[in-house]
Amino acid sequence: MNTTMPFPERIRPLMALRLVALILSTAVLVGCAAGPDFKPPAPPAVQNYTSAELPARTASAPGALGGAQRFVPQAPIGSAWWQQFGSPKLNALIERALQSNPTLEASQATLHQAEQTYAAQAGSTLYPKVEAGLGVGRERFNASSLGQHIANTFDLYNASVGVSYNLDLAGGNRRLLEALAAQTDYQRFQFYGARLTVAANVVTGAITQAQLAAQVAASEQILAAQTEQLALTRKRMALGNASEIDVLSLQTQMEQTRANIVPLRYRLEQTNHLLAILIGQPPGEGAMPQFTLDDFTLPAELPLLVPSELVHQRPDIQASEALLHVANAQYGIAISKFYPQLTLSANVGSLTNASLFAPGSMVWGIAGQVAQPLFDAGLRPGANAAEAAFNAAAANYRQTVLQALRNVADVLRALDNDAQALQAQSAADSSAQRSLELTQQQYRLGAASYLQLLIAQQQAQQTRISLTTAQAQRLADTAALYQAMGGGQH
Predict the structure, then answer these.
(1) Strand pairing partners for 341?
(2) Exposed / middle / buried, residue 315 (Cβ in 10 Å: 0-12, 13-18, 19+)
(3) Of all helices (H) and strands (E), which one includes residue 302?
(4) Which helix (H) or strand (E) holds 237?
(5) In the chain, what are the domain boundaries?
(6) Strand runs (DSSP E) across 92-150, as ranges?
(7) Which residue has the higher pLDDT, 220 or 363?
(8) Which stretch of DSSP H or E encloses residue 100?
């Protein structure tokens, strides 16, 4: 009796052992990933935004919008920071914008796309691929070559399950997932930034609407006073108490005021159109809420994050850091192409000529494939290009941080200057109002003419327009500070 194993049967266990040894020897490498691991950039070392020290409190002026403001270091910023302005109408308008703004909808959809792209790549990279196969064929076997005059036709059925997996020795697939995850982070911060921008634009639009409406109303009162003054001067000219030059001079002022009202009304209409678009509504669909400066409260305490914390709060800086992370991972992908790729596959199935689900011969197989680049002139330039892209992303990140620091510095100086300007303008308005009161008293006593009264009224309205501008600017720059601080969006 011959007990010697056939040659294929003798080498089969040896091949299996070698395959297992190959798997074990490469398992150590699987935990590694090509290229440097990403390290977040160091935060700015500076402690202040401006070279000149900020005052403990800004200047103050009479009135609800003239109070002093104090900068509070490291104060928390709520996600609904606009509520600090104390306007229910504004709160409702912003909530509507956050729900219906098309830009936010597009940004959110882009974020969802990035999340699903990562999930799809992770599913096909982290886990083995399993495929099932079913097949049927009809074959004819002719045994004449074996000395038999028999021809047999039969059906051949096979069913199999195959499994394949890329061991990702150099970590190229893991770097790809890392890049996709960082890309998802980038889209998330873009979404946060879009929310912050929409909210800030609604606040600024509401303040601008209030300012322009007040300026239009004051200008119309000036126009009415000038019209009346012109009519009086014409009567005086008819009586010989005024000249044609006086009439023409007043008429020029009146028409100039009328001309100045036109662009103010146009800007007011533009602002209403902008607010409509921000809430996802066509400009002609419905009237916008009408704001006055009395609808707003000036926040007395303002948050002030140090630069090292600002980089973790502003969405634009975090988005730039995410792009730097993407570039770092893509450099790792380029490096991984220099290393071998190992793919393992196995399949098991049944082969029979009875029926598809009848017992048959077991068929199985195990295979491993290693691919090592020997010569590819494009690998090194590709890695160099990826490294250059990382350097560019790093420079862009530094520029983004510098621009953010400049943005905060500009707003801080603007708030200080706004307070001083409002203080001076408030004093001018008080003087103009007092002058009007005295002129009215003199007019009632007969010591001043009606023409002098009209002139005093015009001066008071002109000063009130400047005061309105200063108040609105202070409110807008306060909103700009919340935006510059990152808005507490996340």
Answers:
(1) 371
(2) buried
(3) strand 301-304
(4) helix 172-238
(5) 7-484
(6) 129-142
(7) 220
(8) helix 88-100
